[in-house]
Amino acid sequence: MSKHFEITFFFTTDCMFLLRFIKLLESSFFSWYRKQPQAMERKLIWMQDNAPSHASHKTSEYLARKGFKDSRLMQWPSNSPDLNPMENLRSIIKRKIYSGGRQYNKLDELWAAIESAAKKITQEEILSLTASVDRRLECVLAAQGRHIGY
Which of residues 27 and 140 earns the better pLDDT score? Predict the structure, then answer.
């Protein structure tokens, strides 16, 4: 079975306020989601960190209206970068864009480097990051919730 992944990053120079976050979800994720086969749609579980715009009551209500509630909404512990594959993805991108001590003087140069590095991330890298979630959960449980170093 072949899996296809698409990485999309959104750039903002200010804080991700609640209404802007919901608008972003509608224009990016949910526009993609509506095109997926129903069998796939039913399997998806919503996973996000506890950033204020992500964890707000309004966002939870919005996601519930879109079908992401109860067992389709992952309960996320506070301060848990060990469990978030996105943190590791960001780390991969940072290593790529700053390799060799590279620095950027202009915002558009930095953004172009981020986009370029993201496009070069392989499906294998994404699968590795997401496949490690179960292992990470087991490690966090064994460490009784303490940091596990991922």
Answer: 27
